[in-house]
Write a structure and sequence with these properties.
Radius of gyration: 18 Å
Number of helices: 6
Order of helices and strands: HHHHHH
Shape: globular
Number of strands: 0
Length: about 120
């Protein structure tokens, strides 16, 4: 491929690919890879992303971010059965698809929020 045929969109797409097809562990395996990390470092990086500013409900966003930063592996394990059922292995793309569907579904009146105060 000659350089003159590349577009900016091509390069962005290449950079965004997660390469989940080349991972050494399976979504269907019993274990997930875990790596040592500092929850405070993860939380600080999440805060820098300013996702809370774009959240429909900033309080929910912050509560979820705080909890997941403490144990992201528990969150992955919680959604893993759905990922297995669908046959996908990229948690980031899975979460992005959920966000898009839930956001647009809410805008269209198909999906409603839950009231956490009601029993």
């Amino acid at each position: 491929m000659r350089k003159s045929n590349w577009t900016r969109d091509d390069v962005v797409k290449w950079l965004q690919e997660c390469a989940c097809e080349t991972e050494q562990h399976s979504i269907n395996g019993k274990e997930i890879s875990t790596f040592p990390y500092d929850p405070n470092d993860l939380s600080n990086q999440v805060l820098k992303s300013n996702g809370v500013d774009a959240a429909t409900c900033p309080e929910t966003y912050q509560k979820v971010a705080d909890m997941v930063c403490q144990d992201p592996y528990a969150a992955i394990q919680a959604v893993r059965p759905i990922m297995q059922k669908i046959g996908v292995g990229c948690p980031q793309s899975f979460a992005k698809a959920l966000f898009d569907v839930f956001n647009i579904g809410q805008e269209m009146g198909i999906i409603e929020q839950f009231n956490t105060e009601l029993e």
